[in-house]
Specification:
Blueprint (H helix, E strand, L loop, with lengths): L3 E5 L2 H8 L6 E5 L2 E8 L2 E7 L4 H13 L5 E10 L9 E9 L21 E2 L2 H16 L1 H4 L2 H6 L7 E8 L7 H10 L3 E5 L2 H11 L3 E9 L5 H27 L2
Parallel strand pairs: 1-4, 1-5, 5-10, 6-8, 8-9
Antiparallel strand pairs: 2-3, 3-4, 5-9, 6-7, 6-10
Helix pairs in contact: 1-8, 2-7, 3-8
Bound molecules: adenine (ADE).
The site of adenine (ADE) has 14 residues, from strand 5, strand 9, strand 10 and helix 8.
């Protein structure tokens, strides 16, 4: 059976996933708590990524080396960058890039030395399954969120976007910085702090990766306020609904 890692960015999301696992057992490694068990009959290891690229790279490496996971799905939140990527939308990554990696002039801006590219790919088949699950989550939103929550966040027609997700060791919380990123990387849909690190480690090991992010803020001057409110009420529900649907879909 394929052993799958479910990586959550936040405690609330992990707790919701653990509530779906009937038999989880805690194993400690690298100062982290890994939860081994089953989800809809599939062997899974659930863990928090911790924040930032280094923490994410360690988590990915331990999952692969120590727990022998054969694919990884990451669920979390991100700040929307491209026009039309709004709070409550979901982004499924097709590619990843580290927006704070710059070894120029030795290498082109953003390129990861030794790889000959700035962009790392998500696994197409695993990502297609995640797109199906995320689409089902958005279609079922009336069953997942209360009408009051949908009104509060204006979540009436949230959309699913697919494309470039960028990562860096910075919470982007000013309109000025968000504009700089949009101008430099016009096809970037959203920004977060871990995806590209997972993608690089998964590329090193040949382990399929799929990443879904719910948009919690617009990476602008209001980002810190929107982020906190969104986390408490919405993010974990989207995340667990998507994992529930993904693991039901798998054969
Ligand atoms: N995760 C969620 N929102 C974010 C932002 N604005 N910047 C970086 N990571 C995020």
């Amino acid at each position: 059976m394929t052993r799958t890692a479910i990586v959550s960015a936040m405690h609330e999301e992990l707790a919701a996933v653990l509530a779906l696992m009937p038999d989880e057992r805690r194993v400690q490694a690298a100062g982290r708590e890994f939860w081994q068990g089953h989800l809809h009959g599939h062997e899974v290891v659930a863990v928090l990524s911790r924040i930032g690229k280094v923490a994410a790279a360690t988590t990915a490496t331990v999952l692969i080396e120590r727990f022998g996971v054969q694919r990884i799905v990451f669920t979390g939140v991100a700040g929307g960058l491209a026009p039309g990527v709004n709070v409550g939308d979901m982004v499924v990554a097709e590619h990843f890039l580290q927006h704070d990696l710059d070894v120029s002039p030795l290498f082109p801006r953003y390129e990861a030395p030794g790889y000959g590219t700035a962009r790392f790919a998500a696994d197409p088949a695993w990502t297609a399954a995640l797109v199906q699950a995320a689409t089902a989550t958005l279609a079922d939103l009336p069953h997942i969120l209360t009408p009051a929550t949908r009104d509060e966040f204006a979540l009436h027609a949230p959309r699913l976007h697919r494309g470039l997700l960028i990562s860096g060791d910075r919470f982007v919380a000013t309109t000025a910085e968000s504009r700089v990123l949009q101008q430099a990387l016009p096809d970037a849909l959203a920004v977060e702090m871990e995806g590209a690190a997972f993608a690089q480690v998964c590329r090193d090991y040949g382990v399929p990766l799929a990443v879904v992010r719910t948009i919690s803020d617009r990476a602008d001057d209001a980002a810190h306020v929107d982020f906190a409110r969104f986390l408490q009420t919405v993010a974990a529900r989207y995340s667990v609904a998507t994992m529930d649907r993904l693991f039901r879909l798998l054969c």
